[in-house]
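Structure, all two chains, one model.
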Amino acid sequence: METWRKRRTLFLALLAPGTLWLVVFFTLPLVLIALYSVSEQGDAGETILTLTFENYGRAFDWVTLGILWKSFWIASAVTAACLVMGFPLALGIAFAPRPWKTPLLALVALPFWTNLLIRTYAWIAVLRTKGHLNNALEWTHAKGQAAFAALGWPDALGPFVPLELLYNDWAVIIALVHIHLPFMVLPLYAVLEKLDRAHLEASLDLGAGHGRTFRSVIVPLSMPGLATGTVLVFILALGNFVAADLLGGSDSMMIGNLIAQQFGASSDWPYGSALSLLLLYATFLFLWLRALGHRRRGEWAPA
Amino acid sequence: MGAGMIVRRTHAARPLEYGRRPWMLAIFAANFLFLYFPIVMLVAFSFNNSRRNVLWEGFTLRNYGLAYDNAALHEAFLNSMIVASGSTLVSTILGSALGMALARFRFPGRAAYESWLHLPIVIPEVCMGIALLAFFALLDLPLGLMTITASHIAFSIPFVAVVVRARMQGFDPALEEASRDLGASDWLTMRRVVLPFAMPGIVTGALFAFTLSIDDFVITFFTSGPGSTTLPLKIYSMVRFSVPPEMNAAATVLIAITVALVLGGIAIQSRLDREARR
C-alpha cells in the first residue's frame, strides 16, 4: 500500500467525489436532525433552534417509555429466536459436505434479497383469519371431526374457531425473525467454518459428550460470530417499523413507528429527531460493545 | 478441514458430521420451511384463479395480465427502473473509485474514515430516511424521483466500495509498474490494466446497488413525493388499503427480478473465484 502523498491527484480524484456525496446526503442530514432534536416548533410549524432538551425529556414520559420498552422487548425476543434457530442451522451448514455448503448458504441468504414488504405481506396471507395456517387447521379439524363421527361421536371437537394470529406482537416477532435470520446465520457460519476441528475431536476423545462439547468448546469459540449476529439482529429489529406497521395490533407500536409518525401525521419534527437520535445512540452503544468484545480478544472485524 | 468433506456417503455418520444427523436434518427442514413457506405460497397464489384469493381454485395467468394492464403499477415499475438505473450508474462510479482508493492508499485518519463509510450500512434505515426528508425540506427541494435517486446513491456507495475494495486487495501493483515502464500513460494503465482487473468487483457492486435500490422501501418512503411512487411504495399502499388480485403477481415479478440479479452476481463471483484459483 502506498502513501497518498505520492499521488495526490489520483488519490483525491478517487476519494473526493464519493466522500462529498456522502457528506452532503448522509452526514449533513444527520447533523440537521441532531440540531432539530434540540429545537422547538414555532406557531407556524417552523423549527427554531433553542438548544432545549425538552424533546429528549418527552421521550421519558410513561407512554413513550412503554413504546421504548416494547421495542426493546420485541427486538430481544427476535434476537433470541434467531439465535435458537440460527445456531444449529449455521453449525449444520459449517459441518456439511463441501459441495453442499454454497447452495445451503445461498438458500439462507436468498430470502434476504426478497423485498422486505413482500415478505411482510406474505406473512399476512399466512397468518390472517382466513389465511393459509387457519385453512390448514380448519382442514385438520374437519378431518378429525369426520373421524370422530365415524366412531359414533358426532361433533366431538365443537365448531372450528380460527386462531387470531395476525395484528398482535407475535405476528410482528415472527415476521422480524423471518427478515433477520440470515443476519444471524451468516456471521455464525463464518466463525464455525474456520473453527479448528481438532478442538472438537479432542473434546469428544476426552470423553465429553456432544452437549458438553457444544457448551464448553463450540459456543466459546464462536463468540465473535455470536456477538456480531446478536448485535446485528438486535439493532436491525429495533429500528424496523414496517413489520409493526403492517402486522402489529393497535398496541404494537415500536420506536420506528413513533419516529415515522412524528414525520407524518403528528408532524412534530423536533420530537421525531430526538427519538431518532436516541435510536442512533442505542445503535452506536451496541456496535461499540461488540467492538469492545472483539478488541478484548485481540480480534478486529470490520463494521 | 474435517473428515466430513472426503467421506463417502455410504459411511455411517462420523462424530463431527453434524450435517448428517437426523435431528440436524429436522432443524434444516424446519428452518427452510419457515424461510420459504410464506414466499412459496405467495408465488403459488399469484397463479390462483380466485378473486378473493383465499383458497386455491385453479391455475391462471390472469393476475399477470391484470398487473400488466394496471396503469398505476406500470408507472410504479417504470419509476423504480428509472431510480435504480440512475442510482446504480452514479453509485457504481463513485463507490468503485472509493473502493480503489481504500485498497491502494494509506492516509491519516483511515480507520476513522472507514468507520464513517460503514455507517450508512449499520444505522437504522428510518433514521437515515427522516434525516434526508428534513434535509430536502430545508433546502426546499421538491420530493420526487431526483430526491429518491440521490438518497439511494448515498446508501449504495458504501456497499459498492466494500465489494470493489475486496476485489482490489488482490491486485498486484507490479502490474501497474510494468505497464508504466513499458511506456503506457497513467490513463492508459488505468483503462487497460487496473479497470479490467477491477471489473468483476465493479459488476458485482453494480448488481448489488441495483438490487438495493429496486428493493428499498423505508428510505424511499420518506424521500418520495406525489407522482414518484416506486414499486415497493405501490405494494405498500396496496397491502394497506386493499389487496387486489394482481398484488401477488406484481410481488412475484419483483421477486423474480431480484433473484435473477442475485444469481447473476453469484455466477460472476464464482467465475471470479475460479479465475483466482488458477
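The two ends of chain B are 21 Å apart (CA to CA).
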